[in-house]
Design a protein that fits this description.
CATH class of the largest domain: Alpha Beta
Largest sheet: 6 strands, antiparallel
CATH architecture of the largest domain: 2-Layer Sandwich
CATH topology of the largest domain: Beta-Lactamase
Distance between the termini: 48 Å
Strand order of the largest sheet: 3-2-1-6-5-4
Radius of gyration: 27 Å
Order of helices and strands: HHEEHEEHEEHHHEHEEHEEHHEEH
Oligomer: single chain
CATH superfamily of the largest domain: GAF domain
Number of strands: 13
Number of domains: 3
Structural class: alpha+beta
Amino acid sequence: MKRQVNYDFYIENLQEMAQLFQQINWDESEKDFLDKLLKIAIKIIPEAECGSIWLIKGALYKAIVGEGYNQELLSKMEVPVSDAFVSKYMNSDILEVKNIIDYNTPETDLYKISKMMHKKNNNMVTLIATLKNGDQVAGHIYIDSFHIESFDEGSKKILEMFSHLASTFLTLKFLRDAERESAELNANYLSFISHELRTPLTAIIGFAETILANKDMTKKEIINIVKKILLSAKHMNSLIEDISTFNKLNRETTLHLEKVNLKKLIYEVLSILEVSASPNVEIVFNYPTDIPTEIETDSTKLKQILMNIIENAIKYTNQGYVRIDVNYENNTKHFIITIQDTGPGIPEEELKDIFKPFLRLAKDKPGSGLGLAIVKKNIEILKGDIEVESKLSVGTTFKIRVPAFLSSLVN
């Protein structure tokens, strides 16, 4: 006998979805945006008790928001994309799984954290729906229930429709944010061309006119002015090189992967930079003997990242130390490189902007303001991430996470 389709059920839920989507604020953060999406999904699925949204972030699959769960534990839930349960079902629109926790091996951190989060619930049924950014899988929404054998077919259909709508909103959100970044970049680019590049060019013109206007200048005087012209020209050239590097990274899609010794690579960077350190600054490098040394990555890009951050740390630190610590996360297969200095620190209100192109926090220091923007872009290409903490008069700490085996994530 053919089952009667309850169209009223779908219409009511679609109407409620539409009303709830109207409450979304496009200017809110990604986390707040996803939290609102999750609340909508849980509200429209009758059996829903808890839920979470996971996104693909570089090489990692991470829980971003959750409802009904301990937020501190949830923030620790991450796994390499290739190790995630859903990696085998990336093209599935909707999936129902019983006791998904048991698909992780007991030795993993994800299994241990999951057990702590669900310790009172031995019977768990999960609906998983795909979230997309355009044609690319961006992550998944998980809806959990602990008192049923299976979700109703109507609920599955509703979640499937919701995921398509949510994917459209997610794509629009990403596009809106990208457009805003592009507009800001163009404005900063024009400002940079108008001011930063004009400064050394004006100096060069001024010095040249001085020589031409004073035909009785001595050879020594001319040489001194030519030296200033040369310094200005070199400064201008370095600014243009930074722009060229940044533009190239925005167009570049090719990775040159190779296996390199990470410890040796960092030593090479330090050997170049430590000569410019103040005599009152100690350079400390700690690489534990019990962690791997081999990393498979694009060594040129990784070296560029380390050069920029360590050079900044040395440049802005007049006394104390610059410390580089390397660790390895077995559960995520990531190296963690921490660069800590005892420099002047960065004001809290400026931390959120330090990776923006053409931003210069210290106007008295030469530079294009593209160094950290290049770092950020390279980190994204290497499917890693970077965090920064700073306190005025205490110092700044950068924490870089890069996957140990990049080829498994890009092939």
